[in-house]
Amino acid sequence: GDDILSVAHEYDVDLEGACEGSIACSTCHIILEEDTFDRLEEPGDDENDMLDMAFGLTDTSRLGCQVK
Ligand code: FES
Fold this sequence. Notes:
By secondary structure, this protein is of the alpha+beta class. Helix content is 29%, strand content 9%. It contains three helices and two strands; from the N terminus they run H-E-H-H-E. It has a two-stranded antiparallel sheet with strand order 1-2. The longest helix is centred in the first third of the chain and has 7 residues. The radius of gyration is 11 Å and the shape is globular. Bound molecules: FE2/S2 (inorganic) cluster (FES).
């Protein structure tokens, strides 16, 4: 895929992603710059539900596996 999680893995960035992008974990939690966050489509309900469980949630948090 071309989501941030896949790209991170390609470049050996240490981002976990335990569920491989099926929105069943929050280990791919990333915190974006506000500019970047604003440019993206809104997170879906599934993503928001998972994000609520992410450690250190911020206003510009996303699940890395859902961000293209
Ligand atoms: Fe599990 Fe992203 S890898 S929600």
